[in-house]
Amino acid sequence: MLVRVCTEEHDRPAFEVLMSDIVPLLDACLWHEKHARRILRTRRVRHGGLWRLGQRHMVRRVPLGHVAIIATWNYPYQLLGIQLLQAIVGGNRVTVKPSERAPLCQAALLELARDAGLDAARLNWTEATRKAGRELLERGGYDHVVFTGSTDVGREIASSLAPSLTPSTLELSGSDTAIVLADADVEFAAASIHFALTLNAGQSCMAPRRVIVEGGAYEAFTRAFRTRFESLEPSRLVRGSEADRCRALIEQAREAGATEVVCSQESSDSFGPTAVLDCPADADLATSDHFGPAIAVIQSDSRERTLELAGTSPKALATSIFTSKPSEAERLARMVDAGFVTINDCLLPTAHPGASISGRADSGWGVSRGELGLLAMTRPQFISTSSRKLRIPTDEPSERVRRNIEKFVRWRYGR
To answer: Is the domain covering 2-173+366-380 a CATH 3.30.70.1140 domain?
Structure first.
């Protein structure tokens, strides 16, 4: 039923909906069933030192309270479903504002949740309209707000929550980078990057918007990448205006000196995956946050230049590194500003149910998904219990005892 609703509402292939939207959500459900109790269990805080004699310290996780989720549309089941799952498992009451671009999909998902036993005391939802989103924020009274969407709207939401000091998780759009080092398997890199570019018509927040290819790998990579476009059919974007924006960015890159534009066949109401080769590094296509299957391919002549180019985006969601030397990729990963780094893969590993996503800079703040995302839907409460009999004296000690304590402090902490 979920597959049918999504294919009708978004015109996506049924198998793609199943594997990229529904299966990751089911995986997350199983993962939480197995690990949530361990993650949220009350823990002993140990090794407090001699001064904590007779004390027992514990930390437990308690619900945030009332969580509002403002949902997005590009993966209408996976993204909303996992956010809802983590909020509910954390013990919270949840109100959802479904996306106006996926009202049928998310209504179906929320009705399934209601049928599974989440009554109105734990789950409610508003209409799937922009007006409902504004009213939700104006009404307030929430202990945490989760939003997935564009950076511009994320800023507006952050501003509206600031007066009440309401905390938020903002999972905002990316403008991500794939790096192909000189020793990479270029055929594999081309296939992986192309898959990320075309999945869901390029409407994935963590899909790359630029490829930086080092040294002698450039010609071989572009040759392998070019062949991937030969038999593609164009895809309909959910937001038709985004197709026009992608076309404008491509034309601007061509005018700025790009040597070749590789694409599938287009029609008036669709936009096919497109690669701009030899794209100038300062072209808007290489630095913007467009949300469609258009990618800039840039050549780098040094590692320093690669890092410089990778740092040109104001967003820092994900980076992919392709190389035959994983140790070199791990070293490079420590030098790039990204919340998620994939080595010799692109996009697919980000769906791991235990992996967390954390935006940086214009890609937002807070953590979602995985263990850290579940913990973010709770808050820590520390509990200390002191023995009435075994405890450090609080009365003023004698001179001799005080001198001995001072000697002990110098020995213990001055080593």
So the answer is: no
